[in-house]
Amino acid sequence: MTGARIRMLLVGVEGSEFRLAAEMARENGAEVFTADGIEPALERLRSDGADIVMIDVCFDIAVFLERMRGERLGAPVIACGIDAPAPVAVAAIRAGARDYLPLPPERALIAAAIETIAHRISGPIEIDALVGHTVADVERELILHTLERCHGNRTSASTILGISVRTMRNKLRTFIEAGIPVSPAA
């Protein structure tokens, strides 16, 4: 991981799975804050900010995201939950969450998300090498390199890129159809 220390806000009822996620994040160098509801989470974002927010799907994620946007509180939001049914996870993503992370979390997924956010905040992205390439070419390379870095784990790569797993799979299908080699699934 880079020298940047990210600030992660976990929004959920204090419990073993959220405590485990917090411990994993701390082990990977994140500064972790917790909130037990939408109002305390918004207060924490106003006072301290955050580089990433993980919120339990038991809360109204659409309302939370709308309030964040209304107050111009910017941070990527990942919905998470314990044994949440698929329609709940889909609703969270449709409301604007970047992705859904089932709890208990995988250590590698937490580490990858933290590393990606740390790289984003550690300094400007080198863009000179991208000049002269189409957006489609840059997107393809970004997806393929992220997937390779995640050892073929589509869920991890999707979370890092801020896209849904379905979008990731659709993109990979088009790459394969075009004859572009893709890392095998983990």
UniProtKB/TrEMBL annotation:
Query: Keyword Phosphoprotein: yes or no?
Result: yes
Lineage runs:
Bacteria, Pseudomonadati, Pseudomonadota, Alphaproteobacteria, Sphingomonadales
The name this protein goes by in its record: Response regulator
4-aspartylphosphate PTM positions read: D56
Which GO molecular function terms does the record list?
sequence-specific DNA binding
Swiss-Prot/TrEMBL keywords: Phosphoprotein
So which domain of life are we looking at? Bacteria
TM segments?
none
Record domain Response regulatory: where:
7-118
Answer whether the UniProt record assigns the keyword Phosphoprotein to this protein.
yes
GO biological process: any one?
Answer: phosphorelay signal transduction system
Known InterPro entries for this protein? CheY-like_superfamily, Homeodomain-like_sf, HTH_Fis, Sig_transdc_resp-reg_receiver
